[in-house]
Amino acid sequence: MTTYGWTGSLLRINLTNQTSSIESSSKYFSYIGGKGMANRIVYDEVPMGIDPIAPESKVVLAVGPNTASSAPTSGRTTISFLSPFTKGNAIVDAHIGGDIGVQVKQCGYDAVIIEGESAAPVYVYVNDDKVSFVDASNLWGKTTSDTTAEVTKATQPGTAVLSIGPAGESLLNLSCVITGVAHCGGAGSGKLFGAKKLKALAFCGTKAVKLADVKAVKALNDYVIGDLMGSNNNHVVPTVAQSWSEYENSGSRWTGHPGMTWGAAEGGPIDTGESAPGQPTLIGYRCQKAVKDHGAIAEKYTVKMTGCATCPIRCYGGVDVPQLEKTWGVKGSHANTCLGNRGCGFNGLVSNVADVDEKGDGAFMAGIYAAIKVDDAGLWDNYGELAATLKYFMANDNAYMKQVLTEEEYNAIDWSKSANGDLTFIDDIIACLCNPNHSMRNLAMGAYYVDQKYHDIVGDDYLNSSAIGLWGVMGGKRHHGNECAAQVGWLTNTIYNRDGMCHTIVNITGSGLPYEIQKRIIEDIFGEGALDAPNNYTKMNANKAKFAKFGVVRQVMHDSLTLCNWVWPMTFSPRKERGYKGDLSVEAQYMSAVTGAAVTEKELDDAAERVIQLSRAMTVLAYGTNDMRNEHDTPAGFIVTPDEGKPLYQPGTNKLDAEDVQDALTMFYKEFGWDEKLGCPTRATLEKFNLADVADDLESKGLLPA
User: Fold this and answer.
1) Backbone Cα Rg of the chain
2) Are 164 and 285 in a shared domain?
């Protein structure tokens, strides 16, 4: 029987005995794919609560039905494992772009299970059905970019490589895997690869991906790109007025416009021009992300925009900065986006970087330099928390740092470089972090464990400080939280055991559309009072809880299908004739066209919620308590500390009220059918989502609510 969308196979790689086997993946189809499939496999095969790098711990890569289907932005991959850096070591997911997902799918697999531990460094090369275990002793100690180059050279053209750098090798908690030089899969994934002595995974596939209805998929592609898709984060309004646009907003990520160029393009500058809705061949010019991330100076150094497989938006700013090589001996060609474009904040460790050719190019160089060095090391930022922690401990003449480091370690660092614009200070700090015997690496354990180790030094301030910016004291960094749609944004963060990797809501509030249009469309869906005006918040209500639930359900859906949540869902449209209203049924239409199984929007939402129910239960198991309200969902203090002179529920502040936050949690829990006091799944809810076995598991450990 032909399987459409899914391949029907998963690959099991055992590093201990260097064997592989192929198994059916069909029993996981009800979990959609990607995150859902990977989370269920981890639940089935990895005991919750164990050390993430214990021999029995596993790492699962999974793709979804849309992967390699041609659906716009479907080139994502989920990597699931136990967190090494947040409280409870509960289930986390790294989400990575580039070409790796397409190659996994074209090799014929929906998921790849990595188990066991190699006795010596190894990389695994998967070429369709052939799996090779290759000695990687010569690669151990190399950067991610050098490793990628070496493995690519040794394999077939088109191979996608996923590798770790010195950070992962040294088992640093905040380490990651990298593909395509700069596409990062974080959440501490590098540590798990390092513990297994797995230097890299390489995939090169030639198999076709079968779609149930090719014509329907193509029609959906045309519809999405022509009528619904905006720019990065689905911002549907350009930054500068254009002949076709009714509105413009300087905060939008639709940055391309006449006069804005790729200044360093081969053959001369390319004008990004206008790319009105309905012009699919021009959509790749909409997002001049290098300028968005670095400012106007980046324009003249932009070679092109690049990004992930099957993505027409292209949010990675590819730049060439010759001053870097001239001044610092580092080839300045790089492509990254968002925090990665500034080395995850590591550029902020050095001040007063001298300009070389023009005003501002010193600061620009610092960002690209930091990005190259951090990516090469395979460091992960926890959405900027690592750099924030380093700066916190370096404040006031290194007051806390002096208590963390030994006298010998402290004196061996030339701290004057930080204030004197010497970018090699970044190299010095990275070397300390990647040195398994250096005390500074304790600051890369993740904020929760940093606090546990140094609470006698920092007191209650560190975890609750706006300088660190956590969403909650379990260690996850705020990621489009209370500053984004009030309680709605903060609630979306609480679903995660890491930084809240949910862009559903910020795609709405940051769309560029006037608030009144946003409000009309959102209230049509979720009811009155669902969306507050920016920095003008009202108390929590039930419709905000519905809106928050939508945010995380669609995030999980996208991470499972796969689709990029930086662009999806299509809540809004750039077309005036649609009243700027998008289409939230498109994901279900893709699921039906790709797999051949008729799926409604409600059914697909429920399938995604099932994954959330499973993940929440896994967190309860890992924590060994069902009191998620007090043990997991506790906000960082700065979020509920009013700004001086700015009363709550008055214009001008995005802070939340501590009592109202508790009401918000109760309403949020009710939406998911969780115990409204504890915030954990009930038997009735788990059975509703066909998770009776999970309910039995919780009950056997005394973790079901009474």
Assistant:
1) 24
2) no
Whole-number Å distance between alpha carbons of 339 and 342: 6
Tokens, residue 617: 């239960």
Q: What is the span of the domain harbouring residue 127?
A: 9-204
And the tokens for 616? 């929440």
Boundary-marking domain end, from 429, 444, 479? 429
Q: Judge residue 666's burial from the number of C-beta atoms within 10 Å of its C-beta, 0-12 exposed, 13-18 middle, 19 or more buried.
A: middle
d(CA 91, CA 6): 24
Q: Is the torsion defined by CA of 308, 333, 384, 497 positive or negative?
A: positive
> What domain count does the chain have?
2
Planar angle of CA 605, 497, 665, nearest 5 degrees: 65
478/142 Cα distance (integer angstroms): 32
Query: Is 648 buried (19+), middle (13-18) or exposed (0-12) by CB count in 10 A?
Result: middle
| Three-class secondary structure of residue 73 per DSSP | coil
Q: Are 69 and 476 in contact (CB under 8 A)?
A: no
b/e map 18-50, b = 16+ CB within 10 Å: eebeeeebeebbebbbbbbbbbbbbbeebebee
Phi, psi of 319 (to 5 degrees): -125, 155
Residue given tokens 């409204």 in the structure block: 676
Q: Is the pLDDT of residue 1 over 80?
A: no
Which tokens in the block code for residue 554? 């669609």
**Residue 594 lies inside a defined structural domain of this protein:** no
Question: How many whole angstroms separate alpha carbon 518 and alpha carbon 511?
Answer: 9
* 180 vs 161: CA distance, rounded Å: 7
DSSP helix/strand/coil, 235: coil
Residues 331 and 390 grouped into a single domain? yes
Residue 703 located in a structural domain: no
The alpha carbon of 436 is separated from its chain's Cα centroid by a whole number of angstroms, namely 27
pTM, full prediction: 0.98
Which tens digits make up the pLDDT trace of 55-65?
999 999 999 99
**β-bridge partners, 59:** 114
Q: What is the mean pLDDT of residues 541-557?
A: 98
Enumerate helices (H) and strands (E) in the chain, giving the number of each: 26, 17
